[in-house]
Amino acid sequence: MNPEVIREYLPLYKEAFILTLRTGWIGILLAFAIGILVAFAIHFRVPVLSKIASVYVELFRNTPLLVQLFFIYFALPKIGLSIPAETCGAVGLGLLGGSYMAEGIRSGLDAVPVSQEESALALGLTKRQLFTYVVFPEAMSISIPAIVANVIFLLKETSVFSAISLMDLMFTAKDLIGLYYDTTEALVLLVVFYIIMLLPVSILGSIIEKRVRLRTLGG
To answer: What is the pLDDT of residues 94-113, one digit of tens each?
Structure first.
């Protein structure tokens, strides 16, 4: 392994890292917003919307992100909807992630005990107050492990962005290997930057999960 090659490639990886991180987190925020709306529609059995939401979840959970990106990036321009690669990546990640987030949040909503809701209503809370101060916070606490796991999963899924010519970490690594054959150096930098991106999320997620668990158990 040549340290000089690593030093030469480092600025390229830094740019790719920033692009990957930005696109990934925009997609994750979009996924979280979609997940909440879809989970609500399914949990509360909103007429028509719950059926559409269920179809959406099944469709996007059972198709690869790569196929979804190809559809958005290559098929939509055929009907006049041309989307830049970075926007395509964020939207594709958001749509895929929304289906997973929805299931995690819905599970949290379903797990809130009925007796807890009945007790809150007996104390005089309105249905709106019940949801705002009891059901939603409790559901989100229960859903945290699933949400953290989905965030890590989605950040790893950014590795397929290179298929739509987005100059992310994977694109940069493949490009440098193809041009200069410095396979070891390119792959070492790729692994290092993915660890830098994923490890803090994993550690932070573990800390949050422990604190929520202690609070829930009254510790």
So the answer is: 999 999 999 999 999 888 88
| Domains recognised in the chain with CATH numbers | 3-113+142-217 (1.10.3720.10)
In DSSP notation, 87-153 reads HHHHHHHHHHHHHHHHHHHHHHHHHS-HHHHHHHHHTT--HHHHIIIIIHHHHHHHHHHHHHHHHHH
Find all residues with CB under 8 Å of 163, minimum gap 6, and list them.
Answer: 66, 69, 70
Q: Is the torsion defined by CA of 129, 133, 134, 136 positive or negative?
A: positive
Residues 6+ apart with CB under 8 A from 102: 34, 35, 36, 38, 39, 42, 53, 57
Write the single-letter amino acid at 126.
T
User: Is the entire prediction scored with pTM above 0.85?
Assistant: yes
Distances (CA, A) of 122 to 111, 119, 130: 20, 5, 11
pLDDT at 216 (0 to 100): 59
Token pair recorded at residue 66: 């790569």
